Structures are given as C-alpha cells and as structure tokens.
Sequence to fold (249 residues):
Amino acid sequence: MTDVLTQPRPIRLKGRSFLALALTPELPVADWLVRLDDLAARSAGFFLRRPVVLDIDGLDIDRQELRELVEQLSSRNVRVMGIEGARTSQLGPDMPPAMTDGRPAADFEAPAESQKTQKETVDPVEAEAPAAPLQQPVTAAPSLIVSRTVRSGQSIFFPEGDVTIVGSVGSGAEVVAGGSIHVYGALRGRAMAGSTGNAEARIFCRKLEAELIAIDGFYKTAEDMEPELRGKAGQIWLEGETIKAAILG
Fold:
C-alpha cells in the first residue's frame, strides 16, 4: 500500500492582480532622473515598498542603456518588477521580465455579434420608420466608502472608481483611486485620483494639507501648492497637463 504521506503534493498556482506604478522615462534620462529625485525628496517614502513597471515604449535606448537605467532606479530604492514596451533585444536574463497587456483603464465590452448584424436583418419596410431611442440601463459607477481615518503608513487602493473617506488622511498615508477622491476631513497624506487614465477625476477635501496630490499621473507636492489653499476646504482638478486648485465655499 502506498503511503499517502510520502506522495508529493501538487504546487498550487493562483492568479493575482496587483496595482503598480508605471514610470515612463524621457530623454535625456539624466534629466529625467533629476526630476525623479526631486519628487522623491519632496514626498518622502513615495517609492517605498511600491511595485513599479517601467514603460519604455517608444524610448530610443539600447540594451546597455536600459540596464543602466534599471540600476539607477534600483540605487534609488525604486524596485522595477517588469518592463513594458521593450524589444526582445533590449532584455536579458539579468533584467526584469517583459510585461504586456497593461490596462490603464476599464475594459470595454464590444457588442455581441447578434447586435452587430441586427441592422442588416431588419425588414426594409420597418427600416423606413424613425427608430425609437434605445433605453440604456443605468449602472452606478463603482465606489468605495471608507468609514474611518486613514492613518500614517496605511494605503487605500481602488482603481475601479471613486473613493470617499469619512474621516481624515494622515501624514504618510495614501489614497489611490481610478476616479475621484472625497475626503470629509483633513487631507495630510498623498491623494492620487484618476489613476487609470481618468483626466476628469477630481480631489475634494475639507482641509487641504496634502503632501502630494495627483490626477491622471500629473502631480503637485506640498511645496508647489499655493499658500492660501493650505488648511482650507478645496477641490483639485486637471486642465491639460496642469494641476488646478480652488477653495470651496
């Protein structure tokens, strides 16, 4: 009789989906690294324990230059978990793996084939009559409500939609949303709205004391914000590539 205790157990593999920052370097790389250092200096711990994907699609660098870039980022404690947009010739066994199919926005579901061909099968007589407007079902946008204060060191990630914090966001805390962010208290940490490519997202808070705010990847640190906005109820939005802010009420 075979001893079941000695039989090898199968390895269990599970799928997981994680949120990572996508860094998009620009040429010259040395100047881009200076700007990256400036961001890290003005927002301490911004890259700490955060997975990063390096997006080099369209960046004209060779294999050695890419390796040096990854080493430069590693020396800054920026951990590159994968590289997107790289050619096979740019990668090697000592480099982070290639990544594909990154989706910055929600999936788009194409109409079913029967819907696509419906127009072709309509009776010609009926086609002469004006078509009645189609009633689209109303679906609520996904949202997350956090009924507590987000304390220092804590992170809230919700790429599917809006995030509402019924409380404050402490210094060193972070809120990342695919949609808008609403904070019914003081915003002292970092708030990043529109993280999945939504330039229409906004940030609202009762007391603006943020370390960093960002919408669709464009950011402002505390030093860049207008002094008259500090400590006031405010809203933040994006115009083109410029972060705008105004006092509420």
